UniProtKB/TrEMBL annotation, chain A:
It is found in: Cytoplasm. This is Phosphoribosylformylglycinamidine synthase subunit PurQ. One of its GO terms (biological process) is 'de novo' IMP biosynthetic process. GO terms for cellular component: cytoplasm. PANTHER family: PHOSPHORIBOSYLFORMYLGLYCINAMIDINE SYNTHASE SUBUNIT PURQ.
UniProtKB/TrEMBL annotation, chain B:
PANTHER family: PHOSPHORIBOSYLFORMYLGLYCINAMIDINE SYNTHASE SUBUNIT PURS. Its main location: cytoplasm. Pathway: Purine metabolism; IMP biosynthesis via de novo pathway; 5-amino-1-(5-phospho-D-ribosyl)imidazole from N(2)-formyl-N(1)-(5-phospho-D-ribosyl)glycinamide: step 1/2. Belongs to the PurS family. This is Phosphoribosylformylglycinamidine synthase subunit PurS.
Amino acid sequence: MRIGVITFPGSLDDVDAARAVRLAGGEPIPLWHGDHDLKDVDAVVLPGGFSYGDYLRAGAIAARAPLMQDVVTRARQGLPVLGICNGFQVLCEAGLLPGALTRNSHLHFRNRDQVLVVERADTTWTSDYRAGQRIVIPVKNGEGRYVGSDADLDRLEGENRVVFRYADGNPNGSSRDIAGVTSENGRIVGLMPHPEHAIEDLTGPSTDGLGFFTSVLKSVVAA
Amino acid sequence: MSRVVVDVVLKPEISDPQGQAVLGALGRLGHDSITSVRQGKHFVLEVDGTPDEAELKQIAETLLANPVIEDVELHVTTD
């Protein structure tokens, strides 16, 4: 299975994301933001980092990159897309996911191992988890506070589109402890914490992140 | 030549921790009469010829501001 990992200028975690894809049994395909070529991938990962130095707003300029135009078109047709941290910011800026990510309420960069509760275990990227399961994966961001109007948040909750919530402490002041959300069809998922940093005991706090990458492989095989 | 100023601020319902930090600093400096600070962005665009208002609005609302969380105001001055 070919899983594309996009590199933008300022991406940091593209190599870790590609490694996670490989450890899960997929074939990582490097994609370049400036191309118009998705290289026949079966799914796409937008990695963490500081694309374009977070100029303007985090993810704002990357969301208008040439390759993102192709990602938006294909995602609307059902291509699975995972946005991690800066990738989540890019997906919100591109209009593929609702809401926005803003400066942490305490204004500090927060880097720690974070407990999450899985709210949805039926998306393309979370089918290897159980609803209600607690997982531990690293969070590291300065602009990870998920916000939206109360009406938008109510609608999001009504549509059951919150995929993860922070537990045992909210690291950035996100509304309603929201750590990750999904598209209506469950094929696009964005979250601030970093599953690609929790795939091996040697380097991560757990191997809880691997499930993202094994989940998508199953969905692609099933499709 | 025209000059277009675009001001972007967070919507009132979105909390602004940076503005609150500035407010805190003002209080420590003794400026007790300041009761609120909202921090935003200020863009100055120079435009050849007569600016197309619709195009400017589109630029402001699709790139310079994120309408999910921000309000935007345009001010056009022509030489």
